[in-house]
């Protein structure tokens, strides 16, 4: 069986989605999980785009050893230099340089002639090659490029030392047969093409990203790029979990497969959804809540008699065991720590103590603690960044009656350490809380989106709130989890404000050093 490399870009193309902003600790946590998922390459970010991205990529390159870590760079020396500073810590330093090759991008965006584009591409690959053993070169908007120009530029960048050639369908316009044909054309016409890896990168604007990716493999691609849960700009990228499961389930047909650890899919998907605040649609293939639910009577009857009548994928295949009750009220610190280790968490004693406290508080309210709950508690500890003074919720109280005006009173500790209290009304309980918090945080808040979902099942499930807003004109996202949705909402609101404050502090720090 031909092995196909999996290149995950959840932290770069996925993070570019509207409404997502991850801090370094969260990115690191996702990268560590992608390593368990067994991605061959992890694109950790775009180091030259911001100080925050640089730090995250560097931290990931220093930490992750089981997967190759890469970062995106434009075809300019300063981007390549900055990338090297972040990526040189990796076991096999890898850079991903891109340049547009379609007439529409060359004329309007780059304002360069095709000859100039070839020169820039060659120069940047040669320059990167001085430090990086692995250089991936992407022809941005490859699918809408002239096929003969593509042959020409790819031939030249291979001569310059590129080790991987990526041919993206940047705007998600291709059909499977057309996208496959582009790979075949290059395979047949570029001298030396067998020396490099060919990579597919598909967007899902017409819902064909996974199908296009498979067509590329059938025509010579050795690497596939995509994201967990199909995150990404606009309609997103090819969903890696769908791709890996499709190749596995239909191995009777395909002569190729990936080394993805399929039983890490559920956990990877949930972690990405939790930390990005991007909910997974219930009917999403492989990882949706309903992906294994059989509703109709005829289907249920069939399933009871023989599971394979209607089930082609088992929940166990992707590591779905969320209904498992793992710990209860009387479980001790020792059992808790053992479970945390068994779940793959590496926490300091201090963090275990903090997580255990949160577990005890939850166990007082909730009889049985499931694995889903534990993941949330432990991940929350794992992603705590070093202490910087931010707003902290002390208490929230809401008065609500269907015949009266909802009123919230909230107290918070400010970044300066002062206890602040306010009360305010709203047309609903959540609005009353938001109005009160807006007075407390001293700034202009404009709420863009607000969502509450439950984690796991049952009437005592944890509630997760996600808040999208602009704070003093800049957009930010916050999320938090609590047993009560009103408390979760207040915490998510403050989380969004705090992220913005931390970012601002980092930026002013970057300017002073
Ligand atoms: Zn893309």
Automatic annotation (TrEMBL):
Keyword list, A-Z: Acyltransferase, Amino-acid biosynthesis, Branched-chain amino acid biosynthesis, Cytoplasm, Leucine biosynthesis, Manganese, Metal-binding, Transferase
Requisite cofactors: Mn(2+)
Enzyme class: transferase
UniProt pathway: Amino-acid biosynthesis; L-leucine biosynthesis; L-leucine from 3-methyl-2-oxobutanoate: step 1/4
Catalytic activity from the UniProt record: 3-methyl-2-oxobutanoate + acetyl-CoA + H2O = (2S)-2-isopropylmalate + CoA + H(+)
Residues annotated as domain Pyruvate carboxyltransferase: 4-266
Annotated region (Regulatory domain), positions in chain: 392-513
Listed GO MF terms: 2-isopropylmalate synthase activity
EC number: 2.3.3.13
Function comment: Catalyzes the condensation of the acetyl group of acetyl-CoA with 3-methyl-2-oxobutanoate (2-ketoisovalerate) to form 3-carboxy-3-hydroxy-4-methylpentanoate (2-isopropylmalate).
Family label: Belongs to the alpha-IPM synthase/homocitrate synthase family. LeuA type 1 subfamily.
Protein name: 2-isopropylmalate synthase
Native organism: Jeotgalibacillus terrae
Lineage, opening ranks: Bacteria, Bacillati, Bacillota, Bacilli, Bacillales
Primary gene name: leuA
